[in-house]
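Changelog-linked ticket: magnesium ion example.
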Amino acid sequence: MRFGGATIVDDVSFTVPAGLFVSIIGPNGAGKTSLFNLLSGLYSPSAGSVWLRGDDITGMPPFARVRHGLGRSFQLTTVFTGLSTLENTRLAAQASHPGNYAFWRGAGHNRAARERAAWALETVGLAGKERVVAGSLSHGDKRKLDLAILLCSEPEVLLLDEPTAGVSAEEVPVMLEVIRRIRQVEGKTVLMVEHKMDVVHDLSDRVAVLANGALVAYDTPAAVMADPFVRSAYLGVT
Ligand SMILES: Nc1ncnc2c1ncn2[C@@H]1O[C@H](COP(=O)(O)OP(=O)(O)O)[C@@H](O)[C@H]1O
Ligand SMILES: [Mg+2]
């Protein structure tokens, strides 16, 4: 991916087998979010291709990728602050798979979307807060709502960009438990950008290390943490 004279994602080639949990680490500005933008279709690569579930999706717009099973959360929350948590999730369910839901009957009668929304809220630990207006949620609960909205698009592959960023210390374990559940119970494929190394070590099957846009390591957490180059260049361990 080139912008002007700069190559911000540089020849990054890797495959994520279905059902695996992959963390992406690297210093600020390494290209992690840009990589997600390439995967989700917000950026169009200067060269190279993106494949999802056996198909070349390089030319596919973002909404079509969502319907093809790709879901992403954003570092910034994307909720409608004036709507309740249930309304936010129900809209997400309807928007992602309009064909699944008889939208012409009106949102109030849309049982399938409503059930999906209630299930998503329950999954992230927001059961009981269905009627709470999103804007009045705590920051941690907003991040949970982001995840619930993501789940409503019924993704097979989830891109999570720093899901615990800005979440209070007490809320981080709750958030991680939610992510662990999505992975273990739901069996989803997850790519997660995360800075907290204990979290990365705990959750990941594989760790990808980006530095200056390049993929410098892609291996099991133990192998990556033991890699002398990674230890000196990124982890700051000598
Ligand atoms: N749309 C863009 N135009 C120009 N430069 C960009 C654009 N998006 C990202 N970059 C640059 O790419 C580099 C990587 O950014 P980013 O992917 O956000 O890094 P990370 O998420 O690893 O912190 C940064 O130097 C950033 O300024
Ligand atoms: Mg980033």
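Closing comment: Example verified and attached. The beta strands are 2-3, 6-7, 21-25, 51-52, 55-56, 70-72, 157-161, 189-193, 206-211, 214-219. The two ends are 32 Å apart (CA to CA).
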